[in-house]
Write a structure and sequence with these properties.
By secondary structure, this protein is mainly α. It has one domain: Orthogonal Bundle (Arp2/3 complex 21 kDa subunit ARPC3). It is built from eight helices and two strands. Strand 1 and strand 2 form a beta hairpin. The protein starts with a helix and ends with a helix.
Length: about 190
Protein backbone atom coordinates (compact mmCIF):
# COMPACT_ATOMS: atom_id res chain seq x y z
CA UNK A 1 0.00 0.00 0.00
CA UNK A 2 2.80 2.42 0.89
CA UNK A 3 4.62 1.64 -2.37
CA UNK A 4 1.39 2.24 -4.33
CA UNK A 5 0.85 5.61 -2.62
CA UNK A 6 4.47 6.57 -3.23
CA UNK A 7 4.11 5.71 -6.93
CA UNK A 8 0.93 7.80 -7.18
CA UNK A 9 2.47 10.79 -5.40
CA UNK A 10 5.50 10.65 -7.68
CA UNK A 11 3.18 10.37 -10.70
CA UNK A 12 1.24 13.44 -9.56
CA UNK A 13 4.48 15.37 -9.18
CA UNK A 14 5.61 14.32 -12.66
CA UNK A 15 2.23 15.36 -14.08
CA UNK A 16 2.61 18.82 -12.58
CA UNK A 17 6.19 19.09 -13.84
CA UNK A 18 5.08 18.20 -17.40
CA UNK A 19 2.23 20.72 -17.35
CA UNK A 20 4.39 23.50 -15.91
CA UNK A 21 7.29 22.57 -18.22
CA UNK A 22 4.98 23.05 -21.19
CA UNK A 23 4.50 26.67 -20.14
CA UNK A 24 8.17 27.58 -19.75
CA UNK A 25 10.12 28.44 -22.90
CA UNK A 26 13.66 27.07 -23.12
CA UNK A 27 16.40 29.66 -23.59
CA UNK A 28 20.13 30.11 -23.22
CA UNK A 29 21.48 32.90 -21.07
CA UNK A 30 24.84 34.50 -21.60
CA UNK A 31 26.46 37.05 -19.31
CA UNK A 32 27.06 40.42 -20.89
CA UNK A 33 29.55 42.86 -19.42
CA UNK A 34 27.90 46.04 -18.22
CA UNK A 35 24.31 44.97 -18.89
CA UNK A 36 21.75 42.36 -17.86
CA UNK A 37 21.94 38.78 -19.03
CA UNK A 38 21.51 38.17 -22.73
CA UNK A 39 18.80 35.54 -23.39
CA UNK A 40 18.55 33.56 -26.62
CA UNK A 41 15.24 31.66 -27.02
CA UNK A 42 15.53 28.09 -28.33
CA UNK A 43 12.02 27.94 -29.78
CA UNK A 44 10.91 24.99 -27.62
CA UNK A 45 9.37 24.62 -24.18
CA UNK A 46 10.56 22.54 -21.23
CA UNK A 47 7.70 20.06 -21.70
CA UNK A 48 9.70 17.26 -23.36
CA UNK A 49 12.83 17.89 -21.24
CA UNK A 50 10.63 17.77 -18.10
CA UNK A 51 9.12 14.49 -19.24
CA UNK A 52 12.50 12.94 -20.07
CA UNK A 53 14.07 14.13 -16.80
CA UNK A 54 11.15 12.71 -14.81
CA UNK A 55 11.38 9.37 -16.61
CA UNK A 56 15.13 9.14 -15.98
CA UNK A 57 14.83 10.08 -12.31
CA UNK A 58 11.58 8.34 -11.31
CA UNK A 59 11.36 5.38 -13.69
CA UNK A 60 8.71 4.11 -16.04
CA UNK A 61 5.86 3.17 -13.66
CA UNK A 62 5.26 6.65 -12.22
CA UNK A 63 6.01 8.29 -15.56
CA UNK A 64 3.46 6.19 -17.46
CA UNK A 65 0.79 7.03 -14.89
CA UNK A 66 1.66 10.73 -15.17
CA UNK A 67 1.67 10.75 -18.98
CA UNK A 68 -1.63 8.87 -19.10
CA UNK A 69 -3.14 11.42 -16.72
CA UNK A 70 -1.68 14.27 -18.81
CA UNK A 71 -3.21 12.89 -22.02
CA UNK A 72 -6.55 12.28 -20.28
CA UNK A 73 -6.65 15.80 -18.84
CA UNK A 74 -5.76 17.31 -22.22
CA UNK A 75 -8.27 15.25 -24.20
CA UNK A 76 -11.24 15.37 -21.85
CA UNK A 77 -10.92 18.20 -19.33
CA UNK A 78 -8.52 21.14 -19.84
CA UNK A 79 -6.53 22.44 -22.82
CA UNK A 80 -3.06 21.69 -21.40
CA UNK A 81 -1.46 20.78 -24.74
CA UNK A 82 0.55 23.36 -26.69
CA UNK A 83 -2.21 23.78 -29.28
CA UNK A 84 -5.15 23.40 -26.89
CA UNK A 85 -6.94 20.16 -26.14
CA UNK A 86 -10.20 18.15 -26.52
CA UNK A 87 -10.97 15.01 -28.49
CA UNK A 88 -10.45 16.94 -31.72
CA UNK A 89 -6.76 16.95 -30.84
CA UNK A 90 -6.64 13.27 -31.83
CA UNK A 91 -6.73 14.37 -35.47
CA UNK A 92 -4.00 16.99 -35.22
CA UNK A 93 -0.42 16.66 -36.35
CA UNK A 94 0.87 17.13 -32.80
CA UNK A 95 -0.99 14.19 -31.26
CA UNK A 96 1.48 11.54 -32.45
CA UNK A 97 4.24 13.28 -30.54
CA UNK A 98 2.09 13.27 -27.40
CA UNK A 99 1.33 9.56 -27.81
CA UNK A 100 5.08 9.05 -28.20
CA UNK A 101 5.46 10.13 -24.57
CA UNK A 102 4.17 6.74 -23.39
CA UNK A 103 6.65 4.41 -25.17
CA UNK A 104 9.37 6.95 -24.51
CA UNK A 105 9.00 6.87 -20.73
CA UNK A 106 8.57 3.09 -20.71
CA UNK A 107 11.80 2.52 -22.63
CA UNK A 108 13.74 5.19 -20.72
CA UNK A 109 12.66 3.61 -17.44
CA UNK A 110 13.70 0.13 -18.58
CA UNK A 111 17.06 1.10 -20.12
CA UNK A 112 19.97 0.20 -17.95
CA UNK A 113 22.75 2.70 -18.31
CA UNK A 114 25.29 4.08 -15.93
CA UNK A 115 24.07 6.87 -13.70
CA UNK A 116 26.40 9.43 -15.18
CA UNK A 117 26.28 12.29 -17.67
CA UNK A 118 26.84 10.11 -20.74
CA UNK A 119 24.38 7.38 -19.68
CA UNK A 120 21.60 9.85 -18.87
CA UNK A 121 22.27 11.84 -22.05
CA UNK A 122 21.89 8.62 -24.04
CA UNK A 123 18.59 7.89 -22.27
CA UNK A 124 17.35 11.39 -23.09
CA UNK A 125 18.36 11.00 -26.75
CA UNK A 126 16.62 7.61 -26.98
CA UNK A 127 13.46 9.05 -25.44
CA UNK A 128 13.55 12.04 -27.78
CA UNK A 129 14.02 9.73 -30.77
CA UNK A 130 11.02 7.62 -29.76
CA UNK A 131 8.81 10.70 -29.38
CA UNK A 132 9.79 11.94 -32.84
CA UNK A 133 9.42 8.51 -34.44
CA UNK A 134 5.87 8.22 -33.09
CA UNK A 135 5.16 11.75 -34.26
CA UNK A 136 6.42 11.05 -37.78
CA UNK A 137 4.38 7.84 -38.00
CA UNK A 138 1.28 9.80 -36.96
CA UNK A 139 2.06 12.53 -39.52
CA UNK A 140 2.32 9.88 -42.23
CA UNK A 141 -1.06 8.36 -41.32
CA UNK A 142 -2.76 11.75 -41.07
CA UNK A 143 -1.42 12.83 -44.46
CA UNK A 144 -2.38 9.46 -45.97
CA UNK A 145 -5.91 9.45 -44.56
CA UNK A 146 -6.72 13.09 -45.12
CA UNK A 147 -6.37 15.20 -48.21
CA UNK A 148 -4.20 17.92 -46.70
CA UNK A 149 -2.82 20.56 -49.00
CA UNK A 150 0.46 20.68 -47.10
CA UNK A 151 3.32 18.45 -48.23
CA UNK A 152 4.27 15.62 -45.82
CA UNK A 153 7.93 16.64 -45.93
CA UNK A 154 7.06 20.22 -44.97
CA UNK A 155 5.00 18.98 -42.03
CA UNK A 156 7.82 16.69 -40.87
CA UNK A 157 10.23 19.60 -41.18
CA UNK A 158 8.01 21.86 -39.07
CA UNK A 159 7.30 19.32 -36.32
CA UNK A 160 10.50 17.28 -36.16
CA UNK A 161 13.50 18.67 -38.03
CA UNK A 162 13.12 22.33 -37.00
CA UNK A 163 12.84 21.78 -33.20
CA UNK A 164 15.18 18.75 -33.07
CA UNK A 165 18.54 20.58 -32.83
CA UNK A 166 17.39 22.59 -29.81
CA UNK A 167 15.95 19.45 -28.19
CA UNK A 168 19.20 17.54 -28.78
CA UNK A 169 21.13 20.50 -27.38
CA UNK A 170 19.08 20.26 -24.15
CA UNK A 171 19.76 16.52 -23.62
CA UNK A 172 23.00 17.04 -21.64
CA UNK A 173 21.14 19.57 -19.47
CA UNK A 174 18.49 16.91 -18.86
CA UNK A 175 21.26 14.51 -17.78
CA UNK A 176 22.83 17.06 -15.42
CA UNK A 177 19.45 17.84 -13.89
CA UNK A 178 18.69 14.11 -13.49
CA UNK A 179 22.01 13.52 -11.72
CA UNK A 180 21.36 16.40 -9.33
CA UNK A 181 17.77 15.30 -8.64
CA UNK A 182 18.80 11.69 -8.04
CA UNK A 183 21.36 12.87 -5.47
CA UNK A 184 18.94 15.25 -3.79
CA UNK A 185 16.13 12.68 -3.69
CA UNK A 186 18.55 9.88 -2.73
CA UNK A 187 17.34 7.62 -5.55
CA UNK A 188 19.36 4.72 -6.89
Amino acid sequence: MVKYLATLSIALTILLVIIIGGMIPAALTFPKIGSPLNTVPLGISWQIPSLLTSAIVCGSRSSVIAVSAYLTIGLFFYPVFHGGGSLGYLLTSEFGYLIGFIPSVIIIGKLSTKNNLIGFTKKALVGLSIIHLCGIINLYFISFLSKQNENLYDIIFNYTIAPLPAQIFICPAIAILAIILKQILILK
